[in-house]
Amino acid sequence: MKKNKYYTIVLIPDETENPKTFRLNRNFLRTIIILSLLLVIAIAASTALILPRALRYNDLVGKNMELTRDRFKVLRLLDDYARIKQRDIAIRKYLGLSLNLESPLGFIESGADTSNHKLDSLMSLPLREIDPADMPRFDNVNFIENVPTTPPIEGVVTAGFARSTIFKEDQHVGIDIATRVGDVVVAAAEGVVVFSNWTYRSGNRILLYHGNDYFSVYGHNSRNLVKVHDRVHRGDPIALGGDTGISRGPHLHFEIWKKGVPIDPRELIPIYREKDISID
Questions:
Q1: Cβ proximity of 157 and 256 under 8 Å
Q2: CA 20 to 30 Å from 220, out of 86, 193, 212, 252?
Q3: Is the pTM of the predicted complex or chain greater than 0.70?
Q4: Closest by alpha carbon to 135, among 127, 95, 143?
């Protein structure tokens, strides 16, 4: 029978202590050495495989940051383009260059211009400068259906109606209703779309004319679902809630105007008085 061979390791301390002796089996020592070599090889192989990926990851992170910066640049360019386009539309309206299409809206105004050109030219003016008497009239207008009393969206009022006074300079001629991006915004009453486009302050904005001297405004939409000259009925989807324009969070800015004067929407829509957490 073959005897196992052993190695003796002697540790001699510097001080006057007895030497320490360790007796190791040769096969055990050989196994330890082989395992150590395999561990070193595994570490080297892992480093060779992981290091290039780590370097590539850092490169991808850098490229991602560059793409993010480029994306913001593109968004700013699109923002500038939208503003330029909106100014171009306004200038064309002032110069009488807007399209004069045959009206499908059923406007009737005895002895007056019933073309869309007149409506377009009026919409180039600020809302407070429009004389409702100059607006075309609906045929067989239903005053009940044309009063904006339907809530355009469910939610709580986070900012109330405020006019400027000698003691207060705030001018917020509408209410802000908290919403989520993508929630459906509906028409507060039957009417005609007289504006549906992007604006600097309100982002995607819609203006409806309801007849009977009523207008309603819907701002900060993520997307407008209607276009100018579309006729809508009470409760029809017209936009998706959003956070466009100058906004501090997703909400709908909602205004109601009567004879060129803004009125508090809470006066016509009682549910917004019940769900009001604003500080006027």
A1: no
A2: 212
A3: no
A4: 127
